Structure formats: C-alpha cells, structure tokens
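#lab-general

N.A. 3:47 PM
ok so I finally got the sequence cleaned up, no stray characters, all 187 residues accounted for. can someone with queue access submit it? mine expired

B.Y. 3:52 PM
send it over

N.A. 3:53 PM
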Amino acid sequence: MFINKMRGVLVMGLAAAVVLTSCSKVKRDPGLEYAPQMYRPIAYNPDQKNSVFADGKTAQTPVEGTIPTNYEVFHYPHTPEGYEAAGLELKSPLAHTNENLEEGKRLFLNMCSHCHGKTGMADGNVVAKAGFPAPPAYNSALLKNLPEGKMFYSITYGKGAMGSHASQLSKEERWKIIQYVQYLQQQ
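B.Y. 4:20 PM
back already:
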C-alpha cells in the first residue's frame, strides 16, 4: 500500500513538473523544447561547403527558365500619369507571328484564364465558382480599344483586383499575352 502511495505521489509530481516547465509568463515562449535545432536551425553560409547537395555548394544556381528578381527596370511610375503615358508611348517590340500568338495563348490559359475566362469574357473559375468580382470582358467598351501599352502596364503593376504579374512573367511573355488578348478582342 505504501508503494502504491509512493507511485501516486511520484506520478503526480512528474505531471506537475511537466506542466510547470511547459508554461511560461512570456506568451511567445514555447516552454521546454525537445529538439531545439528543429525550431531554430542554423542556416548555412552561402559561401561554405554543403554536403546536402551533390556539387557541394550551398548557393545553388537558379533553375533554368526562372526569372531573376532584378530582371527589368520599368520606366513608368505606378501612378495614373504613368498609366496614361504607358498607353501613349509603349508599343510591343515583338513581331505578330503565329508562334508568338500560340505562346501567348498558352501563357494566357495558364496565367489569366482563371479570372478572365478562356475567351476573355470574364467567366473564369475564380469568378464563376469562388464568387470574386468579374473583371471587364475583353470585348466590352472599356477594354475593346485599350492600347497595348496600358495592357502591359496593367500586367506589370496590376489593376483593380488583379495583382502584379511582373515577377511571374518576363517582359517578352507579357507582350505575347497581349498579342493573344488583342486576338480575343477581335473575335
């Protein structure tokens, strides 16, 4: 009987110790950490050797086809005046070819159709199924004759509920999408 009482006291004492060590007056303190290296890993210095990668380098080269963060300088400010100036001055540097149009279609279907719809009628899945506000249709009076410079500006900076796509699409890819949008506007 004495042994059972001792076990009970020992179990209660252990439970109290666990509870007391796991609580803290500091709200962001996680208490006792079993494996602190999992919570606060030591980052590798980009210049040091790293056995995790086959080539032994910590700083890996970017994957082919990725866009560097400093990929372009856009000379039009993100203001209403910049939008108007881009509409007047910016022109596509790409030739209107079937290859560019097909690539523009592929990019449009991957990057734009979820909101704008496959034919630019503002009936994409985000609008139809998720209930987000519809963007204007490409054949609407608002967009039918929109200059390509304003389109490029809108894709670069974003417009209305649409965010910037400059980090996801290269300059050339944006112009190809614009060629396809102009094709949809004519349909």
